[in-house]
């Protein structure tokens, strides 16, 4: 049962927006009395700039890019970098590598990283190239020196925190707005959403859950009251070759894009970072392994698969219970 919401700090709702991480962001904010809209926009952009400077593998000067290009050795990292990396490694351990922050070389090999798409005449890498990329990957091979806050670069390893960084950015922006007194807000970055508090009319932040292209199912609308949601889908970034779709979600177990008929996974969690990570992990696990794992973890998750008959949805008990609660609240 959710706790009763507190009254928003004012009767205003400001709409803010911008660009970050190769996508767009937007915010609907109930400002504290005396707030300045330009200052609040600047505060959001400052948090997003910090995330890019730490974790973007597309930004050559980011801390992550500097580590990826560093020679072998132990390198001291900032506290912010350390915190997100260790959180990602914890998730990798919990999911047996379904989320793995060390797969940058494999992601690059398949044409989904900063080097860009593969040549049109050679779209699929060879088994030998995949094996070589995997040889410098693997979360269990990443060594940490906790006393020195150091991370060992074994040589050639490339970190990629894409499975967690965007959700982390949502959480950072939400926390910054809390500090600014804007305790009621809805944040969206590239499809990842988080709602805090309620609107001035007492209604929660209602959002429509993203559905895969071509779906004829009735759209689901949910209340994000101190809750985040993330969707991982094979339709977002992919390429076609000889009638097969190669999505950007890579399995560290095979070094290849996932290929099990799972179209999308949507996950709710109190933290956007965790919703982001879990949606990726469950996508890698697939329609057979994923649902029982999500159930065992108590996750509110929806799996959409494709077969010869069309799209099929599987939801966890926690998802079903949450939908029933929202229907009652509505």
From TrEMBL:
Keywords from the named record: FAD, Flavoprotein, Magnesium, Metal-binding, Transferase
Family: Belongs to the ApbE family.
Catalytic activity: L-threonyl-[protein] + FAD = FMN-L-threonyl-[protein] + AMP + H(+)
Superkingdom of origin organism: Bacteria
Requisite cofactors: Mg(2+)
Record GO terms (molecular function): transferase activity
Claim: tRNA-binding is one of the keywords in the record: no
Protein name per UniProt: FAD:protein FMN transferase
SUPFAM superfamilies assigned to the protein according to its UniProt record, in alphabetical order: ApbE-like
Record organism: Brevundimonas vitisensis
Keyword Membrane: no
Record-listed E.C. numbers: 2.7.1.180
């Amino acid at each position: 049962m959710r706790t009763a919401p507190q009254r928003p700090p004012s009767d205003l709702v400001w709409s803010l927006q911008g660009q970050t991480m190769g996508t767009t962001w937007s915010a609907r904010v109930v400002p504290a009395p005396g707030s300045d809209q330009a200052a609040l926009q600047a505060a959001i952009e400052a948090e997003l700039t910090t995330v890019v400077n730490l974790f973007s593998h597309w930004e050559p000067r980011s801390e992550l890019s500097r580590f990826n290009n560093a020679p072998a050795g132990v390198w001291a990292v900032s506290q912010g970098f350390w915190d997100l990396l260790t959180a990602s490694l914890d998730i990798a351990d919990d999911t047996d590598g379904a989320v793995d922050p060390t797969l940058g070389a494999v992601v690059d090999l398949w044409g989904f990283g900063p080097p860009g798409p593969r040549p049109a005449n050679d779209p699929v890498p060879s088994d030998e190239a995949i094996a070589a990329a995997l040889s410098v990957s693997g979360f269990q091979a990443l060594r940490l020196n906790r006393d020195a806050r150091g991370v060992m670069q074994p040589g050639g390893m490339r970190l990629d925190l894409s499975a967690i960084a965007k959700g982390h950015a949502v959480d950072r922006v939400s926390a910054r707005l809390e500090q600014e007194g804007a305790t009621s807000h809805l944040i969206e970055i590239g499809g990842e959403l988080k709602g805090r508090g309620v609107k001035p009319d007492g209604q929660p932040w209602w959002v429509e859950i993203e559905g895969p292209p071509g779906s004829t199912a009735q759209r689901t609308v949910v209340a994000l009251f101190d809750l985040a949601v993330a969707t991982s889908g094979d339709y977002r970034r992919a390429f076609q070759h000889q009638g097969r779709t190669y999505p950007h979600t890579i399995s560290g177990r095979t070094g290849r894009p996932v290929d099990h008929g799972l179209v999308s996974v949507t996950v709710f969690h109190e933290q956007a970072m965790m919703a982001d990570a879990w949606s990726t992990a469950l996508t890698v696990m697939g329609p057979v392994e994923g649902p029982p794992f999500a159930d065992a973890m108590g996750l509110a998750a929806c799996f959409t698969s494709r077969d010869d008959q069309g799209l099929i949805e599987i939801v966890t008990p926690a998802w079903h219970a949450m939908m029933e609660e929202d229907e009652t609240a509505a």
